[in-house]
Design brief:
alpha+beta; Immunoglobulin-like; 4-stranded antiparallel beta sheet; 1 helix; 7 strands; elongated
Length: 147
């Protein structure tokens, strides 16, 4: 009796997340964060339907001109900066919890996303990314004629 498919899928997701954590932690090109209140951490959701993959990223206080989105093979890179807006003179902070500075998030695109047809738009502080799926032929069994 083998390991259930659902358990294997959970292990794959866990492995990817652990890889991402180590890659982010040890990445020498990781931009320094210029912030009070801690690093700017991108919060996101990834979900799918039978035909599409969706990624939604929370970017409150960031305009679309301050975000750059790029794709290389099956890796999506979201980077940019959240600048501190100028404040009026004479104002002193009592509490400062919002973060500012550069951010970067590298996401391995799950499944077989068509990166050539990726679409993105930003509305109300949420970056929405849509990838149509392509038929993934890897892992499919097919008969091969023997000559």
């Amino acid at each position: 009796m083998g390991i259930p498919e659902e358990s294997l899928q959970r292990l794959v997701v866990l492995r990817r997340e652990i890889d991402r954590i180590f890659r982010d932690f040890f990445d020498p090109d990781r931009p320094e964060v210029l912030t009070q209140g801690g690093p700017l951490n991108l919060v996101l959701d990834i979900f799918e339907t039978d035909t599409e993959i969706f990624i939604e990223v929370e970017l409150p206080g960031v305009t679309r001109d301050e975000v750059e989105l790029s794709v290389l093979r099956d890796v999506l890179v979201i980077e940019g900066s959240k600048p501190r807006r100028s404040t009026e003179g004479g104002r002193e902070h009592i509490c400062m919890e919002r973060t500012y500075g550069r951010f970067r998030r590298i996401i391995e695109i799950p499944g077989a996303g068509d990166t050539g047809s990726i679409q993105a738009h930003m509305e109300e502080g949420v970056l929405r990314i849509r990838l149509p799926k392509i038929e993934d032929r890897r892992g499919q069994r097919r008969k091969v004629a023997i000559a």
